[in-house]
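INTERNAL TRANSFER SHEET
From: sequence group
To: structure group
Subject: YitT family protein

Please process the attached sequence and return the structure record in the designated field. Keep the field labels unchanged so the import script can parse them.
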Amino acid sequence: MMLFGSCLLAFAYYHINFQNGLSEGGFVGLALLGKYLLNLPPALTMIALDVPIVLLAWFLKGRKFVLNTLFSSLAFSAFYELCEQFSPLVIDLRANLPLAALLSGLLTGIGAGLVLRAGGASGGDDILSMLLSQWSGIKIGAMFVLMDAIVLTISLLYLPFKETLFTIMAVLIAGKVITWTVHYGHGQLTPLRVPHRVKVKEKTARA
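Return from structure group:
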């Protein structure tokens, strides 16, 4: 499930988002913003953002979750590289960006949801969204949307307005699909497990 979710994410990000000029949210969007405003290397920015979140997840969620996340992240990178280097498929929807946003939202939502459902995450921003969702009681998809929308709104400083608006549309669709995929067949969110010595009030959210 995790492998298929990572593959679907890579397929959608390359063939839908990249090929049609849709923007990025999450930590990728923050890394691009750092490049634009401060000329920071995006790769180093991504590492700086991911490492503290992964360490926090190791402490709160355990080694298995972090290893699953590393596996899904590596799988995503490998599949994306394969798409970029060898895929002959071109999905040109620049003349129909609403359809591109719809497809992106559906495919990335299912992909990210499958990875989360299997017990991992596709990156540090996904981990952060999941932790904040479990702490606050906000549905996981809504938290994804909130974080991506904030980044994309700031990114309007340097990204094309039209493509960014349709990216926000894709993010809104993906948020709904993630929530449905993660919680389909389950009544509620799994409470966040923390060590006994850490006094954090656990909350759950309705599916």
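Handover comment: The longest helix spans residues 63-86. Residues 11 and 80 are 7 Å apart (CA to CA).
Transfer complete.
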